[in-house]
Design goal:
Strand content: 15-25%
Shape: flat
Length: 203
């Protein structure tokens, strides 16, 4: 149950092999406890991954079966699917999400917006400036949040440069990948579906 790479030794945090008889008993017990729990968690992680893959495969097969009732050959990548048990108690959802990023044209959009703000310097509210600064800030990964920037398109502004900036925003979005999400729900006493959490922190 230890991190031994050699019988009678344990590797420390610096990567050095330390003889077990030179390690305090409490440190050995702690190491055993951590390693045992981590190994159990890794096994559960693999089991959940297998469950997700199997469930998604079964849902895809069912969608094909359902489509065949209408002589439709579904084929290709499946979209969002929601399946409900006969008694309405449970629901299974398979959702497809896109990963979107901006290309270099987002800088042109920001420049046009800045020009608008400069022209409106006397009439532009501090709230609008704060909204724009917030929309174009980068996240922890160093990327601009797509949804934050797209929220600017909801503003009813008809200035030509603003409209050009909105076009540049739309043109700069690229889909760089997709992810599949499996969610399970149970209906509560009020008839609302609440997600069954598979996140250990939320159990």
């Amino acid at each position: 149950m230890s991190t031994n790479t050699q019988t009678g030794y344990r590797k420390n945090a610096l990567g050095h092999l330390v003889p077990e008889d030179q390690i305090k008993p409490i440190d050995v017990i702690r190491d055993d406890l951590v390693m045992r729990l981590v190994q159990q968690a890794q096994a559960e992680q693999q089991r959940l991954a297998a469950f997700k893959a199997g469930a998604m495969g079964e849902i895809a097969s069912f969608v094909e079966l359902s489509a065949e009732q209408y002589n439709v050959n579904w084929g290709g990548r499946k979209g969002n699917v929601s399946l409900t048990s006969y008694d309405g108690e449970y629901q299974v959802q398979l959702a497809q999400g896109e990963h979107r990023k901006f290309d270099e044209r987002i800088q042109a959009a920001k420049s046009l917006i800045d020009q608008c703000i400069s022209e409106w310097s006397e009439g532009a509210s501090s709230e609008l400036r704060a909204l724009i600064d917030h929309a174009f800030r980068v996240n922890k990964e160093g990327h601009i949040d797509v949804n934050q920037v797209l929220s600017l398109r909801k503003l009813s502004i008809e200035h030509p440069k603003w409209l050009a900036a909105m076009d540049a925003i739309a043109d700069s979005i690229n889909v760089v990948g997709t992810s599949s999400y499996l969610r399970l729900y149970q209906r509560d006493e009020q008839g609302r579906y609440k997600q069954l959490s598979l996140d250990i922190a939320k159990l």
